[in-house]
Specification:
CATH topology: Jelly Rolls
CATH class: Mainly Beta
Shape: globular
Order of helices and strands: HEEEEEEEEEEEEEEE
Number of strands: 15
């Protein structure tokens, strides 16, 4: 086989592998506040949650959400394993200020199972930032800085920002203007800025429409299941 053809095939396969995860993009203006709020996901993991790794190696099981405000800060959240421990961490970086925003880590729940539905929430109120799993506080940090910066033309991304494998079924997304501490069933209320459900149990959607949007934009490999939106490609036998 011609070497150039072999290279083309390798590049094509590599690109195909990178396209095996989906994300949902929501315009940040009107759907998010930086002074106080909560990002919540109701989801079902469909991958190994407690994979043992060498002490120096980190492996990401799936991503949760990310937001980048250029010249101000960036954040991204994921479930991963290092050594014999699983953790959920919200990685944070303040542009131009060393240690202005530090990661918010939390030991992952030890009893979650693949195929079970759960709830994850990240809250912030000024400098106070916390992580909750099924309503229980599991990690937090008081930061040197608060979230700041213009939201115009910025996007809150749910799922994987790098198109890696993200084997979760997403049931609902909610963003609130207050730092919530409970884990109710997914529904909108007076504090809700954004609410999107994919499990066909709740049809009410809340979105600001500030940027003219009517809903989130799904990108990448995905498929709908009776229980929600799978952020990964369907099995080969089910692909159309």
């Amino acid at each position: 086989m011609d070497r150039s053809l072999i290279l083309t095939v390798i590049l094509f396969v590599g690109i195909a592998d990178l396209a095996q995860a989906a994300s949902i993009e929501y315009p940040a203006p009107g759907n998010l506040r930086l002074d106080e709020g909560t990002i919540e996901l109701w989801l079902t993991p469909m991958t190994e949650l407690y994979a043992k790794q060498p002490p120096s190696k980190y492996q990401r099981a799936f991503s949760l959400f990310s937001l980048r405000i250029p010249e101000h800060f960036s954040m991204s959240a994921a479930w991963g394993s290092k050594g014999d421990k699983a953790q959920v961490s919200v990685s944070l970086n303040a542009v131009g200020v060393e240690n202005g925003l530090l990661p918010v880590p939390a030991q992952a729940p030890r009893n979650w199972k693949q195929g079970e539905r759960h709830h994850i929430a990240f809250t912030w109120r000024g400098q106070e930032m916390k992580l909750f799993f099924d309503g229980r506080e599991s990690g937090g940090r008081k930061q040197q800085l608060c979230f700041t910066g213009p939201l115009a033309e910025r996007t809150l991304l749910i799922g994987d920002p790098d198109s890696r494998d993200c084997r979760i079924i997403l049931h609902a997304v909610r963003v609130s203007c207050v730092a919530r501490t409970d884990a109710p069933q997914p529904m909108a209320d007076i504090y809700t800025l954004l609410f999107d459900a994919f499990d066909h149990q709740t049809k009410t959607q809340v979105i600001s429409g500030f940027s003219g949007e009517r809903g989130g934009t799904i990108k990448g490999a995905h498929h709908f299941t009776p229980n929600g939106l799978a952020l990964f490609a369907p099995p080969k036998g089910e692909r159309k």
